[in-house]
Prior knowledge:
- This protein is mostly beta strands and 1258 residues long.
- The protein folds into 7 domains: 8-135, 2 Solenoid (Alkaline Protease, subunit P, domain 1); 140-237, Immunoglobulins (Immunoglobulin-like, Sandwich); 248-387, Sandwich (Immunoglobulin-like), CATH 2.60.40; 407-432 and 449-572, no CATH class; 589-690, CATH 2.40.50.140; 695-854, no CATH class; 866-998 and 1030-1053 and 1108-1248, Deoxyribonuclease I, Chain A (4-Layer Sandwich), CATH 3.60.10.
- 12% of the residues lie in helices and 33% in strands.
- A 9-stranded mixed beta sheet has the order 51-52-60-61-56-54-53-59-62, with no helix packed on it. A 7-stranded mixed beta sheet has the order 1-3-5-7-11-10-9, with no helix packed on it.
- Helix 9 (1002-1014) runs antiparallel to helix 11.
Amino acid sequence: MSFFFRFGSVFGSPWADELEGSEWADFIFALGGNDSVFGGDGNDRIFAGRGDDVIAGGAGNDFIAGGKGFDTATFEGSVRDYGVSGYSGVGGRLIDLTTVSQIAEDGSVVETDWLNGVEALYFEADDYTAYLDGRNNAVLAENDAAETDEDTDLVLNASDLLANDFDFDGDALEITSVEATSALGAAITFENGQLVYSPSGQFEDLNDGEQVIDTFTYTVSDGQGGETTATVSVTVNGLTDTPAVEARINEIHYDNAGTDTGEFIEIRVTAGADISEYGLELYNGSNGTVYNSNELVSLTRTTDGTYDYYVWELPSNGIQNGSPDGIALTKGAEVVEFLSYEGTLTATEGTAAGLTSTDIGVSETSSTEAGQSLQRAEDGSWNAPAAETSGASNDGGSSFDGVVINEIAVSTSGTDWEFVELFGEAGASLDGYAILQIDGSGEVTSVIDLDGQLVGENGFFLASSAQAETTFGLTGDLSFADNTLANEASSFLLVSGVEAALGDDLDADDDGVLEFTTGDVVDSVALTDGGDSLLYSENVVGLDGSFLAAGAARSTDGTGDFAATSFSDSTTYTPTAGGSGNDGGSDATARYISEIQGTGSASLLVGEYVVVSAVVTQITANGFYIQEEESDYDSDDLTSEGLFVYTGGAPDVTVGDLVEVTGTVEEFSGATQLSNITSIVTVGTGYALPPQVALELPFTSTTNLEQYEGMRVSLSSGDNEAPLTVIENFNFDRYGDVTISAGTQVQPTQLYDAQTEADEIAALQEANANNRIVLDDGNSSQNPDSFGYVPANVGDDGDGVLDSGDSFSDAGPTLRLGTEIIEPVDGVITEGQGDYRLVVDGQLTIDETTNSGAREATPEDVGGSIQVASFNVLNYFTTIDESGAGTGPSGTLDPRGADSAEELVRQTDKLVNALTATGAEVYALQELENNGFGEGSAIANLVDALNAKAEELGSGAVYAYVDPAELGETGFLGTDAITTGIIYDTTKVSLVYADYLEFEEASSAETFAVAESLHPYVSSSDQLDDNQRNRPSVAATFEEIESGETFTVVSNHFKSKGDSGLEDLAEAVQSALDANQIPEDEIASVEAALEALVTDPNYDTGNGQGYWNQVRTDAASELTAWLEGDYTEALAGIGVSDDDFLVLGDFNAYAQEDPVQSVRDDAGYTDLIDTYIGQDEAYSYVFDGQRGTLDQALASDSLSDQVTGLTEWHINADEPDLLSYDNSFTDSAFYDDGVFAASDHDPLIVGLDLTDDGSNLI
């Protein structure tokens, strides 16, 4: 309560008031209660009276009398902006009057407030309270920032760190302790008032232009018991570390019995060292002259990670074997070492002219066995002839054991780019070798026969699929069919002499030991998905959780440990064929970019060594784009004038440079590029950029983006009513990508019937496909913590971009679907991951009202006395998804939710806040863990959290869950890892009856029968599982406590649209037919069965309804029959006659698909979404950029008139999962516990006003 008089006085009441003065001088009397007072402008007189009051004098010179109670005067600025007098610090106390004066920068007094009877001062800018009652005040310690490089100690004086810290009482401040180790591992010492931060050794991976921000804390004390912690943020700048070169002549072979063969000289240098200036000179001992020379850059290189080995191989008698002869290792005009064998010599010419050689002390003779050499020991001495180790360490021979598996790719995005790369001795024969894939039961699921193959002269051998050769733009030494390698936990064995065929069980007793009659395992690696499959290798590679590792690669060729490779970023792979690559030794052919690009989808010059002159137009994290000067364009519009140059790291070029680039043409992920770059020469700077090509969405059916690949473009919308709009952000957190369109897009089957409107569906599918493009951040690294092309217009940390340093809340920042881009998007067209993409140059200009401003803080009011919410909770599991964990009825199913206890808390907090905010009394839930109804189960945990939230809010709600058929702690609903459930507020409704329905889904059995007939022709990994498809539905009948009326809620979750093995089976059978692996007399029956499979009603027919449509339709039909039959009869058996059914949940079917039509059209239910929103506007889920209602709400005829409203609360489907609870790969700083991004489906809320329709409790 407050009373305000414009002139003169403001009076409060005896209770708590909010009082506000005017722009003039006022008298304000707060009287009693805990009041909040704002004086406004003018020189006010404020009398707080009794109670604990908060008083802001406002502008002007004010007098404030606190009165009785604990009173606080508040000030907008920082405590540093004010001078306080009349207060004596610790032990002192306000006696009569305290003055608080605001001080300007020039030291003058702006205004002064006089305080009497005020116990504390609060300064808003610092969030700091100063107490005037004699207690010791807290230290105000501000954070600090500093900068150094990765090799330089940072020295900070305590006085400098304390300079921005403040003590209200005037106490002397000192630093009492400092963290010994920073957040990123740097050592910190603090002695004699000086702090030393030592980054050395912690940031060696940083290069020039790269930086990280490290932090550490220190504690400030006032000596009176007050302590505060401050944080120092240290920007560590990277330095490119060039290895110091340690080079030496390491091995020689020049003479052997019979005709000299295999002569060579090996040079050993520090791994990664720059050898561009190094060379070799061979000297004739008879006259000291040079008879041959070479440069190290032209030699074959191998490495063991510690040293690189360069081997000069010479023809027979290429190295003289007189007494003596010599070898000089040179660096420019400097002689690194000058060695000789069989005596010493003095050089008369060459770099070593005038120098006398050092005899190595050992030699070869005409009796030395072929295949031996002279080798240098680690201490520099030389050993007598022994088996050669050309290209490898001399300590006992090769640093790897013959031939090894070096890199492998198995399960990747899209069509798998499968390959197996071997590393070994150059020219080694692979006769008798094979690569076997062994599944988790010991069965051979694939065989790659290497008989007759050889390791290349570069030490590599590559077996590759067709897709791998397309993806990486290479030709393997041995090709095999796509999808040869099964996507399952498996062991990959390089074997020699082992006789094994596809389908053989090499571990019949499943004891984990393979049984061979002949041969050996040479090398092996296993890929795991975290399950309990048997693995047959000591080298096991996996990821956290239940994801199968995409592949594995050694950290060092031949010897390094294996690590998991990327699922989707092919740029992180390095498949190398034995004959691949270009050493730059040949002359490059000068080409225009248009010649390289050509008019087709791929260059006809792949593999050609070329030099290109063009202007740098855009720079990315691993390369740059170049484009011809306009005067060099050809006359063919179908040939692109732009090209990407792949450098693998930040290139040393600038936009506007005219450069000459020398490298090899290749196709990478569909885009033409230059790679294996041997030279980048800047010809000039400041060149005008070629003009942009103006493009508009939607593209026409004749738009050919290939003709713009690598070129500068400016993209806008061609429809004034449909601005460029973000329609897909699924990959935003992982790759920094979003998809945009002119306007939004709708799933075709949301609007059109698959049976009667196939033409309309096909037309909309085509229109949607033509009206989209992916925006790419130009960075191939995964899980970025900064998104440079996206502005943070809300919660920004000052850098203007969306990143982990921003402040995240329900207000933002975010990048929602539906966000409109109001200026053209500039960038370069490229291709990758199966899509054309626009690599953004600069930052998007967005309409923030369509982004964070479009967030609905609360759901639309649906009316009614009871509200029911349907909510897919996105795999809410209390069983943590960690190695060895199992769930479901069998206890062997993989958990799908939180990967840690921390993640579970985060997930629970978000869901509970969202569920509570719906205002519903009954929740129909989907994707709960199927782990019973006991303590600690998913549904019980959620109820406990809801009740705790209700108590915190004081809402009075008391929640309970429905245990259908009283299954109890060990009861399960169906056989899947997830299930449905219902939760309700016991203060609003009471449970009358509940049950659940497990579906017969007859068509599933028919589909499986066809599939099973094909199982003998494929590996077990490609066979179809026989299990429940739809999750059981839970139904519960409630009585509204206030009205006594009853109604029934049903929570459903039908089978997903994915193939769940159908497509894999069909492709595996077709592959077997193509490979002539089917017995001739069975081919016809197999072809007939395959035809039956791909035309089965559960196979994707391309009409928009996806896989398993008939199974979902079976469930919908069974559900309504069950409700009208067995369920209604069960209600009657307990004296209830009521057919008010509300059918909710995730149908995995859009509005015009068969399952929804079965309930709506065949059973006569009312589609509430259509009634209250309209199908063209409704959506609860977005897939592939297209909106639709997977989540349905249908009411029986008797209930439909009692529905007061329906809304979809768009808090999830539009939000990027960057903001979700899952921090397995993303920075935790993106998370807040607000309602947004709590799941991936939007909740539906239905309002009910129940009336007595004559059907109720009997």
